[in-house]
Structures are given as structure tokens and as C-alpha cells.
Amino acid sequence: QVQLVESGGGLVQPGGSLRLSCAASRLVFSLYIMGWYRQAPGKERELVASITTLGNTNYVDSVKGRFTISRDNAKNTVYLQMNSLKPEDTAAYYCNARLNRREYGDWGQGTQVTVSS
């Protein structure tokens, strides 16, 4: 079992900011790439950002320059700082541990991000 706990979602106006947090176990955090995913109703789940154990990051084009993924090794926690939010960012956001382009964590409830005026 690989469990992760997401938090930090909410309702925000366009142009606003949110920071999401994801807590993992020490073992998982030390071995896996950590990723943030999102899924809007009627759309496929999308990997939006990832970070390796060494801190190398990748982003989907639609969030580059607006989102920043980071990690706190002491807390075994990964963050997603979301700035300049747009209505199209509205989705349920999930974190997961990945390796070889596969996810190994249990998909939890996620945290809802709603961008609306």
C-alpha cells in the first residue's frame, strides 16, 4: 500500500493562487518521482508536474510559468504552487508516486481546485 494525502484545494478567483500539499511516507518519498495530476469532468487525467528525488522538475506546457512543484525532504512532502490560475485549471488534483511512467500509489480523494469569479 502506497498512500498519499493531498490538501490545499479551494475556491479562488481567476488570477489567484493556491498551494497544494501532498504527504508521503519517507520510503516512498526517497525512491519515487512525485507527480501532481488533475482531472476535470469529462476529461482524461493529466500529469501536470513532477519532481525527482534530486529535484529535477517537468511541467505540462499549459502550466509552465504559472505552477511550481517543489519538495521538502524533511517533511516528506511535495507542493504545487499555482499562480495566475485560470478557469480551465478547475479540476480535482491528485498526487502520486511514479516510476518508469507508472503510478504506484493508491488514488485517493484528491483535493478540488475551482477557479471561478
Q: In this structure, how is the largest beta sheet organized?
A: 7 strands, mixed
Radius of gyration over alpha carbons? 13 Å
Principal-axis shape: globular
Beta-strand fraction estimate: over 45%
Q: In whole angstroms, how far apart are the ends?
A: 39 Å
Number of helices: 1
Query: Which series of helices and strands comes N to C?
Result: EEEHEEEEEEEE
Q: List how many beta strands DSSP finds.
A: 11
Q: How would you classify the helix and strand content by structural class?
A: mainly beta
Summarize model confidence as the mean pLDDT: 95
How much helix, percentage-wise, in residues? under 10%
Question: Which blocks of ≥5 consecutive residues have pLDDT under 50?
Answer: none
Report on the structure:
The protein has 1 helix and 11 strands, in the order βββαββββββββ. The mean pLDDT is 95. With 117 residues, it is mainly beta. Helix content is 5%, strand content 48%. Strands 2, 4, 5, 6, 9, 10 and 11 form a 7-stranded mixed β-sheet that branches.
How is this structure best summarized?
This protein is mainly β. The chain has one helix spanning 26-31, and strands at 5-7, 10-12, 18-23, 33-39, 46-51, 57-59, 67-72, 77-82, 91-99, 102-103, 111-115. The longest helix is centred in the N-terminal third of the chain and has 6 residues, at 26-31.
